[in-house]
Amino acid sequence: MEFECQESTLVFKDLANCSETNHFSSNSITEDLEISKLTLDCNRKKGISSSCSSKQVAPDDVFSNVWRSITDLPPALISEILNCLDPKELGVVSCVSTTLHSIASEHRVWKEFYCERWGLPTAAWFSDEKSWKELFVERDYRSKTFLGRYSIDVLYGHTEAVRTVFLLASAKLVFTAGYDSVVRMWDMEEGLSIASSRPLGCTVRAVAADTKLLVAGGTDGFIHCWKAVEGLKYLFDLKGVEKPNTEFRLWEHDGPITSLSLDLTRIYSGSWDMTVRVWNRSTLKCTQILRHGDWVWSLVPHDTTVASTAGSDVYVWETNSGTLLSVIHNVHVGYTYALARSRTGDFLFTGGEDGAVHMFEIITESKEHRVVKVATWIPHSGAVYALAFEFPWLVSASNDGKLALIDVRKLLRASIGKRVPRFKESDQKTIEPPQRMLHGFGCNLFSVDIGADRIVCGGEEGVVRIWNFSQALEIEQRARALRGIRLENRMRRRRLQIEMNGKGGRSGRCSVAAKKNLVDGDRNNSVWHSKRSIDSKVKT
């Protein structure tokens, strides 16, 4: 680059000399203008401020078209450039000028930023008066809530251990089930029991729901389903009293159902019969059977793929064709019990019998899928039975009776649309400490789920706990205000003390000086009297 700049400078000087002689045609003007632009661009890159004399200055119309900024580009082109930035960079750009602020603040990419992290906002979060940038900033700020203070609601109702919990945040509902074969529905806000199903006849190890369908998987190999009842406040009639024919069962598995998940068009079920089955929600027919080499413990779908764990391995499948895209062998020492996935589908989190939690990145290159380990955490002393993810927090539940909260914000890809792997093979043994541990359980935790400001877990105790962080930021703001008031009062008392000490010091010095003068005066008087007496004696 240095050689190129020097060469361009020489060309520019030649151009100036040619301009003195006024021997240039219209074609040479065009060429010279291009050369001068290149020169200025080169000098600008090198940090050189080009000061040209009157002999070297080209015509005014030349330089009026040279000094351009990004704001001179068409707004559509600026918008495409901003599309390559991540949220932090886009926020910095919006502070540069009013033009960029207006373009960046209303940019469509804010919606993509929001949806790739948290999905479409619920009615409680969404407002027509707020822009997507405002929604993103607010939700990103609220994500810090899990570092604050919390309250705990303990829900009693199950008579035996709770094997599965599911948080339907959009409807503010919590679904739980376990060894007592009953599915229970709770109010997330109030912590009260809303309804419970009749006994299903066996242990229920998996529950999943959306606003249209609730499914529960039993150890007898069936999937029990409830359709949402239109107009019903709490969506589902678990008792079957409000409206008949809203319940049905799907039978095809030959072993206990261990995991369930839903998307808009499919039902996914995993079983100890070593298969994952994909069901069409409209026809209720099984469309794919994905066969594994061991018991299936967990699964998470995304778009046209589904990730699953079987034995100690992790699989990634293409659901339309049933093709195995990738497999990771011996992820954990022992069984790989738990699996979670980011909303973009690019990152997988696994938990296993060895107490470790691993993070993987799925990289797609020319129709080939590679899975690269990104980080490892060892937050527990026992097996990790469940994982849940809500950007940027990963929460794990273990049989040591603890929950671990891990912030993976720095590890996730910074911007969308990039398909270059961010991590190198050397990073595979990175061990990061957990951000926060939640205690208070005496025995096994089997399941956990997380929402915007709540964590729900259940275990061997037979109770359900809801960790409520909804007031964490407000409590922190009040605590900061009180700390500020206390600090201000402390500083005021200190200033008063200093002033009092200053006044006391001056008065003390004055009193000491007065006493000293008094003593000196007495001494002088005594000497004077003694002199007079001596003089009188001498005269006499």
Automatic annotation (TrEMBL):
SUPFAM superfamilies: F-box domain (SSF81383), WD40 repeat-like (SSF50978). InterPro entries: F-box-like_dom_sf, F-box_dom, WD40/YVTN_repeat-like_dom_sf, WD40_repeat_CS, WD40_repeat_dom_sf, WD40_rpt. WD repeats lie at residues 155-196, 250-289. Keywords: Repeat, WD repeat. It holds the Pfam family WD40. Residues 67-113 form the F-box domain. PANTHER family: OS04G0619700 PROTEIN (PTHR19855:SF19), WD40 REPEAT PROTEIN 12, 37 (PTHR19855). This is F-box/WD-40 repeat-containing protein.
